[in-house]
Structures are given as structure tokens and as C-alpha cells.
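## retry 2 of 3
previous attempt timed out at serialization; input unchanged, resubmitting
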Amino acid sequence: MTRLALALAGLLAAVSGAAAAADLVLARRGALPIILTAPHGGRLDVPGAPERNVKDPALMAASRKWGGAAATADTNTDVLATRIADEVGKLTGKRPYLVVAKFKRKFIDANRPAEVAYAGAAAAPHFDRYHRSIREFVDEIRRAHPAGLLIDVHGQVKDPDALMRGTVNGDTVQALVRRAGVDSILGASGLFGRLEAAGFKVFPSNRLPLWGNGEDAGFSGGYTVRLYGSHAAAGIDAVQLEFGTRYRRKDAVEKTAAGAARAIADFYRAYLADARQ
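## retry succeeded, writing output
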């Protein structure tokens, strides 16, 4: 094979790999300084990739600081994140950014660092595509807006009726709190105050302090919000929303999305639309 043929073959392989990665990650550019992400709702297999052995002691130990090793999906969080994004777009006239994993969690856990997120090389392009998209969108918001918010959408079964807050007990929203105070998170006009007003049972209570250890240790914020939150030099404010099973049932997703979208749109108008650094 000639050098030209080899080069063309390499280029075709690269293009094919990029296309395949795009097929398993939904990345949609927006106009609002808000990013919705969903790492655990995917429904598709990853060709050529082995399933993660979440019972392997080494993987369990390495994953402990990130909330452990799990292979089960956060059911309907892919639909929920997409519906919230669409509803926010209708309410504000501008769509938020959106990054949703289409791959099953048993192949790739996109809310973990690469070394514990997947088991084989075939999974790497999809993991990289997911996080490259988030990084690109965060950087774009930082260039174009004085402030932004990343919302990482998850599901939990510990309390089916609760929406659990994850900010690593305030760490990932440091910029917002410095600029607008704790009320921007817990107050009546703040994000979780508005979510509570929309009918969600928020945990921990908005009447408890943001700082300390009030957030449930298992759901206080994982790899995504820790990587892109405003405590990091190149981050934006970031929160993890853990929706209980009641909010994610097939017959409840539309209502859940509508309520969450109203809270997010109102938060945007109050704290992001005219933000000052």
C-alpha cells in the first residue's frame, strides 16, 4: 500500500471513529449560558467494548471516591434532560446547551474519570466525545457570558419522592454564591427554592445551611460537577440534580420536565440574564 493510500485509510478510520462517537453522544449547542448533561440514561451498546466489571475489587476501590462502581442506568434521565432543555427553550426563547450519553452505563460511566469509566479501548472515543463536548461548551459560555450554570441530571432510588441537591456542599457553586449570595441557591428566588415551589421535595431542606455536610454523601456531586464547577479555575457553577424514581416514571417525565424547566428559566432571568462578574 502506498503512503497516500495509508494516509487516506488512516483519515477514513479517524472520520469513521468520530462519526461513531457522535452516534453515541448527543451534543447540542445552545444560546443560553446553561448546560444540561445526562451521563447515565443511555440505552445503546458500545460496539467492541466489554462490559465493566463493577464487582472487581480494584475497580470498586478506585471508584469509591466518586460514589462507587455501578452499571445500572438512571432510568429516563436521558429523556428528562432533553425535555427540560426543550421546555427551557420554549420559556426563554433560547435553547440551553445539551450533552446526553446514549451509551449504556454498563459499558461507560461518563460520571467517572477515564481510568475507571470503561474497560476497553473501543469505549474511549465515546467517553472522550462526551467530555470534549462539555469542555467545549463550558469554554464557550465562559467566553461569551459573565456567568453560567451546568446542571447534571441523575436519578436515585434511595428516596423515590425526593430531588436531591449535589453541590459538594457549596463548593461547585462558589462563584454564584460570591456574586449573589446563598439565596441564589436556597432562597425563594434561588434555584432550589424555585424547584421546591414547583412541587419538588428538595433534599436537604432549603432551610439548612449550604455549607457543612447536609447533602447526602452518595449524591452530593460526582465527577462532572467536580470537574467543571466554579471552584475550578476554568469552570462555571455546577449542580447535580438527583431525581427520585417518582419523578422519572414514564407517566411523570413530562410533568417533571415542565416543573424543572420553569424553575431553571426563572433562575436564569433572576441570576444569569443580567449577571455581572
